[in-house]
Amino acid sequence: MNKANPHLDCQFCEARFKSVFCDLNKEEVTELSTHKACTIYKKGQDIFKQDSYPHGIYCINAGKVKLFQLAENGREQIVRLAKPGDLLGYRAILGGEKYTSTAEAIVETSVCFIPKNLFFKFVETNNAITLQVMKLLSNDLKNAEHKITDLAQKPVKERMAEAILFMKEVYGFENDNATLNVVLTREEIANIAGTATETAIRILADLKNDGVLEFTGKKIKISKMNKLVHVANILD
DNA sequence: TATCGCTTTGATCTGATACG
DNA sequence: CGTATCAGATCAAAGCGATA
Questions:
Q1: pLDDT (tens digit, 9 = 90+) per residue, A69-113?
Q2: Architecture of domain A10-140 in this structure
Q3: Contact, A218 CB vs strand B, < 7 Å
Q4: What kind and span of H or E run contains A232?
Q5: In this structure, which CATH number among 1.10.540.10, 1.20.140.10, 2.40.30.60, 1.10.10.10 belongs to the domain A154-232?
Q6: Closest residue to B6 by CA to C1' distance?
């Protein structure tokens, strides 16, 4: 199933420098390196599941991950997209709770598991990490609040435009500086915007007709960024 | 070539708001 | 109040491309 990947040394890990572990000293990096366990997940594989208990946290080394909650009606709501350097599952660990969402690889993804004890040790002894984690938490909270307001107040077209911009924020562009560096299904995009797949498809077609977006297969190119931002009706 | 999963499209239903 | 309108969801069916 999942290939273990023992050769990744935290000392040289590019992703670590973008993570909460960027401020570790040399001994701590060594400790992290010896206790973490790196695993490769194939596209579509779950890293952890909603309602299960956490035993540690996950740090993405390479790849892309979506986090979603399963609603009563069976629909998924994507609550977060994650990239290399991002931490997964830390809120559940800190709160001593079950996972409130499922994490699934959207492409082949390499993830390092850091045991609970080690994570808590870092948080207790390293102020820089504590501060970083607090920043993460407050950022998550801000995003969650923003999402609530969006879903409650904004029409679908604005949410769809925002969903596209969100994908761009997290994963950026390809070399042409316009094509999103991520491929999601229409259903997944709908699940970011919180709408039905059919509605998402119709709105994407509208945005194409308006000359805002272009499609090549499942790839999305933003041809008129200013117009897309305008459609998204972002107030700040 | 048969099949599967995803995408698209049209038709219809529903709930919220506006309006006479 | 009753009802007209609108946004969006739901349902059904067809299209389409990758893959076994």
A1: 998 788 899 999 999 999 999 999 999 999 999 999 999 999 999
A2: Sandwich (2.60)
A3: yes
A4: helix A225-232
A5: 1.10.10.10
A6: A185
Residues 6+ apart with CB under 8 A from A30: A10, A11
Q: Where in chain A is the domain with CATH 1.10.10.10?
A: 154-232
Q: What are the start and end residues of each CATH 2.60.120.10 domain in chain A?
A: 10-140
Beta-ladder partners of A57 = A114
Q: In this structure, what token pair is assigned to residue A12?
A: 């040289």
Retrieve residue A152's tokens: 């409650």
Whole-prediction pTM:
0.93
A184, A224 contact by CB (below 8 A):
no
In angstroms, rounded to a whole number, what is the distance separating the alpha carbons of residues A31 and A14?
17
CA closest to C1' of B5 belongs to A185
- Whether CB of A44 is under 7 Å from strand B: the answer is no
Of the candidates A174, A160, A176, A173, the residue with the CA atom closest to the CA atom of residue A228: A160
Instruction: Give A140 CA → C15 C1' in Å.
Output: 41
A203 touches strand B (CB under 7 A): no
How confident is the model over A2-14, as pLDDT tens digits?
Answer: 445 555 788 888 8
Distance in angstroms (rounded) separating the CA atoms of residues A159 and A194: 8
